[in-house]
Automatic annotation (TrEMBL):
It comes from the Eukaryota. Pfam families: DUF2340. It comes from Gigaspora margarita. Belongs to the UPF0538 family. This is Eukaryotic protein. InterPro entries: UPF0538.
Length: 126
């Protein structure tokens, strides 16, 4: 059984670059599914005081941001390349989705992501 530490980048808003990290430990990659991971993340958002301002977003999508010891994307908010890294299969195990120890995942609203992807240079805080 493979256990891992995974960092979840919870993205509230793309244009304002509002992101907060959630570190999950002892995640069983062979057993846990994408759907189960989403439920755990939403539960953590709802009960952790640090995420109070992040509770008004309908989070529905996970995407691999980067894997350990590999190059990072130039975009600091989300990996706009590799849309095949979006984890759509709720019943797939994490290991079958090539998630490894110290992988970083982004958790966000898909509709907001698609809008941001069409104009990634728009930043509202500038």
């Amino acid at each position: 059984m493979t256990e891992a530490i995974i960092t979840i980048r919870i993205i509230k808003n793309f244009e304002y670059r509002t992101v907060k990290n959630l570190v999950l430990q002892n995640i069983k990659l062979d057993i846990m599914t994408i759907g189960e991971l989403k439920k755990i993340i939403i539960e953590k958002i709802n009960v952790t005081p640090a995420f109070k301002l992040f509770r008004n977003v309908d989070y529905d999508t996970l995407k691999i941001y980067m894997k350990a010891h590999r190059s990072k994307t130039q975009n600091l908010i989300i990996n706009l390349d590799n849309d095949e890294w979006i984890l759509n299969d709720e019943n797939a195990s994490l290991s079958s989705c090539n998630i490894e120890n110290e992988t970083e995942l982004s958790f966000f609203n898909r509709e907001a992501y698609e809008a941001y992807k069409s104009h990634p240079d728009v930043m509202k805080w500038e």
